[in-house]
Known about the structure:
By secondary structure, the chain is α+β, with helices and mostly antiparallel strands. It has two domains: 4-99, 2-Layer Sandwich (Alpha-D-Glucose-1,6-Bisphosphate, Chain A, domain 4); 104-221, Pleckstrin-homology domain (PH domain)/Phosphotyrosine-binding domain (PTB) (PH-domain like). The chain has helices at 16-28, 83-91, 104-109, 118-126, 208-221, 236-248, 254-266, and strands spanning 4-12, 33-37, 41-46, 57-65, 70-78, 134-142, 145-152, 155-160, 168-172, 176-184, 187-194, 197-204. Helix 2 packs across helix 4 and helix 6 (236-248) runs antiparallel to helix 7.
Amino acid sequence: MATIIRTVHWTFLSSPETALPLLSAAVEKTDFSVVSASSDSIVIDVPRAMMKNRWAATITGTITPTATGTDILWAVDGLGNKHYEHLVTIAEGLPEGSLYDHGIPEAVSKVALKIFGRKEIRHLANILDGGEKVHAIGVGTLSNKTGIVALTDRRLLFLEKSLMAEDLVDFSLSSIGAMSLGKKMGGETLTITHSGTAAVITTLGHGQGDGIARKFRELKDKPATSTADTPRVADPIEQIERLSGLRDKGILSEEEFQQQKAQLLARM
């Protein structure tokens, strides 16, 4: 039986010297194990667990230091459909604020996502590209499936709720011709016109569809400042605030904080 490989991008808001011990400590909290680790890669073994309905897998991370932190490109190789869930499990063991959060907590704070838990929200981060930011979020139904609806600076995506399914539908902002809001007894609806066809997302909570539609219009009206080949760079002030939080928690030393702060300020 052929294995499946999934790739995921993480950005630590600290240097590799700080990020790797945090990552190793997070793995120790699971039943996974670190097979090898160096300055440029880390390999994690996920054992077969019949009681958890989990196949064995190998997770390989390619580590790249950046001016503001550490990028890790993960490749999860294994059978079954829990590839993303393996990384969610590891992320659960990391201190809050260790990773670039793609703006997800801020977007979630503006709406009620009562049927979603912490793992489902962390799962969303795993399918986002490096630097991609979520501007609005909701819970709705598409093709009789319930999932997270998220508008980023690059696309509108629908991610089925179940970690088991990993079903993803997305529409690039450039392909969306129009987005209209409707209201029914069961909640708000969004009709997305794209490439000559239409998709309808229903049962969105009060204000969720409206928030997504409003932010979509803002993004479409904003002049393009980058090309598809240029990743979005996180706001330096936002990153400094996150680094300050890591310093306050003892994750970063004062010297590391000041060094990375200076690098961020130099970019402004």
